[in-house]
Amino acid sequence: MRVCERIDAYTKDWSYSLVHERFWREEADIILVIPLSMIYGDDFVVWHHTACGKFSVWSSYHVTVSLANQSQPSTSLSRSPLWKALWQANVPRKIRVFTWKLAQNALLLGVNSQKRMQDLEIMCPFCQHEEEDVAHAFL
């Protein structure tokens, strides 16, 4: 079913009877309040993340990064005294980064690696009895 099949050809508005015959009353009432465009023409795809409306890998990357930052806000954590102390500690940078990754469960251990590459072995390479995760590797 296409939307245009539910629009009256003469009035260019919703055909109440056609909408009501296909949908439950509550659904039909919701559909009928959706305004229809006053401009008639062929549909076309617009990527609203760029000024020109065209998709690009660059804009997709920035949308992805933006969404990742929204879903995992680090600002509150990075401003805590603990994190400030970590980032200002007089230790090699690689130790600070390792500690941060350890706390964020971002180390590429068996379990985390399998999330990225499905066919990897997740068992601990030393004991072969438990899954290799942060708790098993460091505790």
From TrEMBL:
UniProt source species: Sesamum radiatum (Black benniseed)
Protein name: Reverse transcriptase zinc-binding domain-containing protein
Domain Reverse transcriptase zinc-binding: 75-139
Pfam families for the chain: zf-RVT
Highest rank taxon of the organism: Eukaryota
Classification via InterPro entries: RVT-Znf
